[in-house]
Predict the structure.
Amino acid sequence: MPLQRLTPERRRELTRTALVEAAAEVFARRGFDGASLEEIAEAAGFTRGAIYSNFGSKEDLMLAVVERYNQTLLDSFSNTLAKAKDTSKEEMTVSAAALWRDLIRRDPNLNALNLEFRVRALRDPEFRGRLLDLYQQNTARIASLIERESKTYGIKLAMDPMDLAEILNATTVGLSEMAGIDVEHSDRYDRLVEIFFGMMGKAIGESQT
């Protein structure tokens, strides 16, 4: 069977994906300031020109890494919750906690990147504004997911979905970062994430059925 020729759009998509994945590795290892566009491009199998033609700047590339991680986490949670529709609220929160823990463990770059994003934001006001826009968009997506799942389980929310989303994001990221630093006691933070999700499950509201 002959190989299907890639369209220009598909080729561009594959190039962008390769560059973002390479950038995540290099940014996590060297930091934003220490990472060079040449090293990122070489790791992805392209030249520096490919970065400028697809992203425009180093900051744009870093923000694309943020978007990729946000979307990956959100898609994983959405899929897990969709598969748990026939389970109880308690079982669903346990599944969500396990997924969060496994995602963090599976990608050792995630904690380093999260810290690098925030350090860069503290040093660069323009980058800070753009990063906050992405965080707010991601928080809105999480809030929408919470609202959707609360209807699935017949739960009347006791808090605003955006407030819940911000608490969820800030707490789990903080616990994940501590687990990455205190590696000898990472199991303790796994347990704390499970406790937190259980508390969230009880606090968000009561079943209307």
Notes: The first helix runs from residue 8 to 34. The chain has two domains: 7-56, 58-206.
